[in-house]
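Translate sequence into structure tokens.
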Amino acid sequence: MELVDVLKALADETRLRIMNVLRQESLCVCDLEAVLRLSQSNASRHLTKLRHCRLILAEKQAQWVYYRINDNLLAEQPFIRALLEQELDKSVKYMQDLSELQQYRNQGGGCVTR
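Result follows.
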């Protein structure tokens, strides 16, 4: 992993929004589409970039792939953890995304395997 690649990946608002909700729980593409109102192709494109620089990991369960933040990378690069845990909570947009995730879960949203 190159530090420049990580910084480039984090320089996109949609990818920061994905990282923001993934810090709460593992999610599949359909969850991200619903919560962040993304198209499947757009979500997949951003997830590929995040996986490429190891910011997130993927785990296949049945026909779904669940994505989660790579805790090992956060341990290696503590500035990323600080960004996610401190800076994103200061923005209304990212807090709204977390609220959307909570509403989605409260309404029973999620893939069948959950």
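Note: The longest strand covers residues 56-61.
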